[in-house]
Amino acid sequence: MAEENQTLPEFLLLGFSDFRALQGPLFWMVLLVYLVTLLGNCTIILLTQASPSLHSPMYFLLRHLSVVELLYTTDIVPRTLVDLASPYPRAISFQSCVAQMYVFVVLGISECCLLTAMAYDRYAAICRPLHYATLMSWRACTAMVGVSWLMGIVTATTHSSLIFTLPFPSHPIIPHFLCDILPVLRLASAGKHKSEISVMTATVVFIMVPFSLIIASYARILGAILAMASTQSRRKVFSTCSSHLLVVFLFFGTASITYIQPRAGSSVTMNRILSLFYTVITPMLNPIIYTLRNKEVARALQRMVKRQVSSP
User: Fold this and answer.
1) Residue range 57-76, pLDDT digits in tens
2) Do 158 and 202 form a contact (C-beta atoms < 8 A)?
3) Residue 13: strand pairing partners
4) What domains can be seen in the chain, in order of their start residue?
5) What is the largest CA-CA distance in the chain?
6) Which of 25, 26, 99, 120 sits a CA distance of 20 to 30 A from 194?
7) Are 259 and 200 within 8 A, CB to CB?
8) What's the pLDDT at 261?
């Protein structure tokens, strides 16, 4: 058993230091993806704010999703780039590790809830069109966004309280590029088993409950689509849902594999690759998916580009 420190320890983030030959290419890849993520999500935020045709509940929620994605990736990527630029593992202070994980969890849970709210918006629009204005009023949309942030804060506070009150070894080493929940929790030298069960239970609940609600919403939507007589109507309705469905499966798919797989079957390298995907790649893909697959967003972008080109 490692000797425990009475003072706050520093954590050593291994990052990708065991793959030194890949650190240079990874640095440039992550930097490029981060810049595209900033550009794409800022574009979505500006479009949904400036274009009157996008002043609807669905795009109000999409705008907040883009804000979450921006903050989410910015919590992780700058630190990851600094670490990739160094040939050796770098230390992160106890307070910085707590802050990174707290923000990471707040934004991750908020994104789960926002994706659920967006599924409910599609359900209300397709299955309850006569009541849509009431179900998705601006007051209701604001409440959904507020609850999303509140759920994130409550979950992050609970996780931080459970994890960072445990004793850690004097020189803890995290086999990851960020202060993620499970790698940090498994470093604790006592009380680990009970806390790991509690944290895993909370994590599973906050992943599976929103995902189950999304599946339930789309089951009702699928029923409504199949009841339509016109093939053209079915295609039109499905096209309004396809972008959101793709984003949902990207986010929940990687999160489920990372956090719900059995510990015995988990791989440190695979966990880092999956984490890199949902913390770096997915935030870049979301605005691309919504721009390419959503005709209203694509048209609004074209109008904005034309105005910029034609303006003196």
Assistant:
1) 999 999 999 999 999 999 99
2) yes
3) 90, 174
4) 10-261+275-289 (1.20.1070.10)
5) 71
6) 99
7) yes
8) 64
